[in-house]
Design brief:
Blueprint lengths: L1 E6 L3 H12 L4 E7 L2 H11 L3 E4 L8 H11 L17 E6 L4 H10 L3 E4 L4 H12 L4 E2 L1 H12 L7 H11 L4 H8 L3 H15 L4 H10 L13
Parallel strand pairs: 1-2, 1-3, 3-4, 4-5, 5-6
InterPro entries: CheY-like_superfamily, NreC/VraR/RcsB-like_REC, Sig_transdc_resp-reg_C-effctor, Sig_transdc_resp-reg_receiver, Tscrpt_reg_LuxR_C, WalR-like
Protein name: DNA-binding NarL/FixJ family response regulator
Keywords: DNA-binding, Phosphoprotein, Transcription, Transcription regulation
């Protein structure tokens, strides 16, 4: 039997998913949790083989809960030892969200799979079995997004955009950057808007981390983005 913990903040969704899984002869739903905190506690108490994890929940979300489960067992990137007594649970993200950043964050946190709720019931059952067997599972739409992202034309920032983003990484505000570079604050904002568009992000912090991921900025020890 594959022991499963269902984590979702909507009680009707939890009940529906649990009921669906219980119709499978080799599945045993050992618990339901409404938050990341509850998931961690129940995982310790019930030792599930697979945790079906939603992403956005009150309190601790699914990515952080996945990351903590991963850290507890000393695993990274969804790589786990063979399933068996004492083996860590595997996390299968099951959510309505298909945002690129959330997909990558969940996988980087240690999730072994990512399925969307809009998929067929057979996809969910097959995904649970595959993840329990140590495989990595991605919904077709998710796999297509990851491939498309990998095939995108490399992002290029202008020297001025790189300079401004570097100062953001050092923790400088827009007014401080304007003073440092002897330009208007509106000019700083315009450059940052162009950076956001190129990096496909919506805030300063994510712009810095995304630029570092793409090696457009060096990783700055101790730097903060405000």
């Amino acid at each position: 039997m594959i022991k499963i913990l269902v984590v979702d903040d909507h009680p009707i969704v939890r009940a529906g998913v649990s009921g669906l899984l219980e119709t499978e002869p080799d599945f045993d739903v050992v618990g339901e949790a409404a938050s990341g905190e509850e998931a961690l506690a129940l995982a310790a108490a019930t030792a599930p083989d697979v945790i079906l994890m939603d992403l956005r929940m009150p309190g601790m979300g699914g990515v952080e809960a996945t990351r903590r489960l991963t850290r507890q067992h000393g695993q990274q990137g969804g790589q786990h030892p063979a399933q068996g007594e004492g083996a860590p649970p595997r996390v299968l993200v099951f959510t309505t969200y298909e945002d690129d950043d959330e997909i990558l964050a969940a996988i980087e946190a240690g999730a072994s799979g990512y399925l969307v709720k809009a998929g067929p019931a057979t996809e969910l059952a097959a995904g649970v079995r595959a993840v329990a067997a140590g495989q990595t599972v991605l919904a077709p739409t998710i796999a297509a997004q990851i491939v498309a992202r990998a095939q995108k034309v490399p992002v290029a920032l202008t020297p001025r955009e790189t300079q401004i983003l570097g100062l953001v990484a050092e923790g400088l505000s827009n007014p401080a950057i304007a003073v440092r570079l002897h330009i208007g604050e509106s000019t700083v904002k315009t450059h940052l808007l162009h950076v956001f568009e190129k990096l496909e992000v919506s805030d300063r912090t994510r712009a810095v981390t995304r630029a570092m991921e793409l090696k457009l900025l060096p990783a700055l020890p101790g730097a903060t983005a405000s």
